[in-house]
Amino acid sequence: MTRGRIRARIRQSNLYTFGCVRPNTTETQNPQSLQGPGYSRIVHCNEPHVHKKKPLKYCSNYISTTRYNVVTFLPKAFFEQFRRVANIYFLVAAICSLFSFSPFTPLSMIAPLAFVLGVSMAKEAVEDWHRFIQDMKVNNRKASVHKGDGVFGYKQWRNIGVGDVVKVEKDQFFPADLLLLSSSYEDGLCYVETMNLDGETNLKVKRSLEATLPLDSDESFKDFTGMIRCEDPNPSLYTFVGNFDYDRQIYPLDPNQILLRDSKLRNTAYVYGVAIFTGHDSKVMQNATESPSKRSTIERKMDRIIYVLLAALLGISLISSIGFFVQTKYQMPDWWYLQPENPMSCYDPKKAVASGLCHFVTALMLYGYLIPISLYVSIEMVKFLQAIFINGDLDMYDEQSGVHAHARTSNLNEELGQVDTILSDKTGTLTCNQMDFLKCSIAGTAYGAGSSEVELAAAKQMAIDLEEQDPEISSTFTVRDNRNQFGASEIELETVVTSMSGKRKKCAIKGFSFDDSRLMEGNWMKEPKPDMILLFFRILALCHTAIPEVNEETGEITYEAESPDEIAFLVSAKEFGFEFCKRTQTSVFVREKYPSPVEREYKILNLLDFTSKRKRMSVIVRDEEGQILLLCKGADSIIFDRLAKNGRVYEEATSKHLNEYGENGLRTLALAYRKLGESEYSAWNDEFVKARTSIGADRDAMLERVSELMEKDLVLVGATAVEDKLQKGVPQCIDKLAQAGLKLWVLTGDKMETAINIGFACSLLRPGMKQICVTATSPDTLGQDSKKAIKENIIMQITNASQMIKLEKDPHAAFALIIDGKTLTYALEDDVKHQFLGLAIDCSSVICCRVSPKQKALVTRLVKEGTGKTTLAIGDGANDVGMIQEADIGIGISGVEGMQAVMASDFSIAQFRFLEKLLVVHGHWCYKRIAQMICYFIYKNIAFGLTFLYFEAVTAFSGQSIYDDWYMILFNVFVTSLPVISLGVFEQDVSAEVCLQFPALYQQGPKNLFFNWYKIFGWMTNGLVASIIVFTINVLFFYEQAFRSGGQMADMTAVGTVMFTCIVWVVNCQIALTMSHFTWIQHLFIWGSIAFWYLFLFIYGLFSPIYTGNVYRILVEVLAPAASFWAATLLATVTCNLLYFCHISIQRCFYPMDHHIIQEIKYYKKDVRDHLMWTRERSKARQETKIGFTARVEAKIRLLKGRLHKKHLAVGS
């Protein structure tokens, strides 16, 4: 607390000029008008009991992201289950089984349905329970709340109510939306990190009203009361309108006094605030959408398949009932031995029509095996097991955090293999919120020998591709540390390549990866321009708003700053020998090691802080010699425009270096200075003070104009290049996903410049790519005309950009669309959004900047609904929850900043790079497994179910089943279920390693090559043929032939048993032919299922005939001794599967798919014997892409070839 009190003496408001500070006048002059709807909320401060009764009773602070609760679980879960058409059919069939016309007992129909529904609902309950546990972790967090008489105590978050006074300490999250009353700083400032809300890592400065500054201790709240009138709950994160009635005066409130739930207090010992919005009324929860119930594309298509099968069922039932009607009306009277005992029976010839209708219902149940009821529960089991394998994949385990991948719902496993577009957050997802000082340019000289991760990986890939694609060029061209053999003006692969291994030595200092001995250890004093280098270091140490924190035990200094860039600059200045060590109300102290160790004091006269509009910041200081200096850093385009004529000495060289840094994905800033005379500064400062203390809407504009007067005639010193550290493996992952044919959109709350820099860093953008920036320009008109003019301008920009893309003739041309949140507001309107989507689809990459959580969700919905293809959203913060829930698949990053994204997601991973294996391997496998599993299920049920129809046709449509009831129960439960489950869990067309080497294989999913109607009807036809062959062979063998050695004919039980045995063999051998990858488990399940059938038949035959009827000892005494039994089984098995074997043989020989070729190469080990051929095949198999390392390398190779060609032409001429 000692350190906190020292810092609290600083009046931080003196450091800021723009948004966070009010003029130094009374705050009572302009209370805001809060008339009309939308402004009805009244909050009685420190009187939470008032809000326990209507009309001031507001929602509690309890939050829930679950899909169900105790009351809604059964109705919602039943609704989910009966969205499946097959379940509705079997419900009707179960009800019909209660009546006398049913061919089956009620138990045999109700039990399977209850089992299927029970398993599915239990799985839903378990998954939702896990969400509930995550919610409770948040709801049970504790915060310090005023209990009365100036005493604070801890309350769980869920028990905090509107009006409660809350004390939040450093590095804690705000439990609700609070009105800031005071802080540990005497002028009520506090620093807030809003990364969970808008994705930005830089700290925001909030400031309380001056009237509430005395409320700076627990005791001061003993008699505190006040009333807030403000806007109703809404999702806008950046606006707030309200008035605060306190101490008989009314004060206007704005967003600068509001602390939003799930943002974090940083760099401030404590704050006091009043809860305004709690729970689902808070702005972050207002941005959340209701947890949706998602169904995969395959599951939705399954419903259409069920409709087809139902139509077939109705058709054959109708045919059967017509046949029964004819038999009953015209032939039944002659069959005296079949006369009905009961006149009301469904077999009455006098009521043939009624009998036909009755038989129609019987037939619907009898042929019900065409509808695979066990398919759903089998898929549920398979998906559950697939999820276990995903969770246990060690390649997706993050050692640093100890977090595994987690399939939070298994309903969407196969959807992972059909993704078309990925929508990603930036901060915390692509980047790890860390800046590293890597290079710099001082006085026209480039310093820094290190290479960014992007440079190294791209250089390595280029060297490989050069060797693969053109050995002649590879032999002519040599990758060197700096430039190629053609000289400095010729082609560069990369500015610096320190290691072709792509591994860079890890630096021990966080934020400082600079490597150049010329500037280290004071060696810069030997450089040609030491005075400029000295000035460069001083700008790094002085031009900022950071605050040093001294560790009282070690004496080590760390920094708290508004942005990670500033921390990187200060750490770098410290390493160069210029350590920022202390800040007071009016001064900054720097320990300078060189030329001689000394602690210098610099008087802070003014600070012109950074805004997204200004794109620069300046500080005016007076050094110990009395010289006044303006030190400025900012975007190079802004700084260069403000240079004096004599300040442009190093402009050309610095510009060249900045371009090189930008191409390598580094974030750059230019540094400049200006010397000021005493009189000049005094005159300007008078104007600045007037602007700063003015009142009115044009105050910021006045400050900007005055600042412009000072920030001119600058002298360029140099430039910095920092690496916005990407998460490990992000560029490689994006490249692999691009090769897999996936599109990537980045949706971020960050500034446009930051997003563009990251785009370059991870190769979503590259030099030569044409950037289309769609922005909303502000017209001169106001009101509705203004909005209309902005909208028309945006439409014109979109139209022109679309036309430009269509007219582009270069096949290698790539376009990137960049758009900000303000423009998106118009672009997402109904009459514009389809034009915007069309343009975005035509572009290779899309970056949306400054977007709110709601806009993220709306963009995701537009892509999902507009393209009709599978979308995946990935993010790590509460601001990403909307898009994660809106997308077909939501991926949450288990980051350090809360678990909101994970709680709302379908899958969670610890690092973005794990997305590569999740999609390219697990997604590919799961899609093919589920697709093949469903097709096989349809095949085996048709092969089995149609034998009922054929038997009916030769037995006068009697409604009699040829199979024993136990056979039918066994068919889906035991003798065919385990093999198909093993197919769904263990099948691999290629190994994980090959999937990653040939990412283009992933496109089999988005193109739906294994679950299209051609495939589905093919398997249906296969089942139809198999059923005909099995029935025909059995009829030919047993219709007029002696079955046993004594000359006896086969009865219905014997024929049914033989036919069922044939079906068991045929479908199990069929699945063996379908599989590409065998383990002992598949062999056990397939051949074990067949063996189990014989074992069952043997044991079942031992029971008394009272229970088994004609099945008594049927295997031992009837079937086993008969040669025709074994002959029929063998002939049916070979004949049915021979047709499929011929089909796959022809396909592999004449129409092979990609994985067939790879399987053959791997089988004959050609990848080992001929490594160059394997590498060549990998290159040929890449999906054509215009983003990622591969596209970047290919673009450079084209450039290289073009320049070499020109060079050869020049030499030849």
TrEMBL record:
Gene3D superfamilies recorded: Calcium-transporting ATPase, cytoplasmic domain N (3.40.1110.10), Calcium-transporting ATPase, cytoplasmic transduction domain A (2.70.150.10), HAD superfamily/HAD-like (3.40.50.1000)
Pfam family, one: Cation_ATPase
Protein name from the UniProt record: Phospholipid-transporting ATPase
Transmembrane segments: 85-101, 107-126, 305-326, 352-377, 937-960, 966-986, 1016-1039, 1054-1073, 1085-1103, 1123-1142
The organism's place on the tree of life at top rank: Eukaryota
Active site: residue positions: D425
GO biological process per UniProt: phospholipid translocation
The species this protein was found in: Rhodamnia argentea
Family label: Belongs to the cation transport ATPase (P-type) (TC 3.A.3) family. Type IV subfamily.
Cofactor(s) this protein requires: Mg(2+)
Membrane topology: Multi-pass membrane protein
InterPro entries xref list: ATPase_P-typ_cyto_dom_N, ATPase_P-typ_P_site, ATPase_P-typ_TM_dom_sf, ATPase_P-typ_transduc_dom_A_sf, HAD-like_sf, HAD_sf, P-type_ATPase_IV, P-type_ATPase_N
SUPFAM superfamilies hit by this protein: Calcium ATPase, transduction domain A, Calcium ATPase, transmembrane domain M, HAD-like, Metal cation-transporting ATPase, ATP-binding domain N
UniProt main location, coarse: membrane
NCBIfam families, A to Z: ATPase-Plipid (TIGR01652), ATPase_P-type (TIGR01494)
Positions bound to Mg(2+): D425, T427, D876, D880
EC number(s) on file: 7.6.2.1
Keywords: ATP-binding, Isopeptide bond, Magnesium, Membrane, Metal-binding, Nucleotide-binding, Translocase, Transmembrane, Transmembrane helix, Ubl conjugation
MF GO annotations: ATP binding; ATP hydrolysis activity; ATPase-coupled intramembrane lipid transporter activity; magnesium ion binding
Domain (P-type ATPase N-terminal): residue spans on this chain: 43-110
Gene from which this protein is expressed: LOC115737325
Acyltransferase keyword on record: no
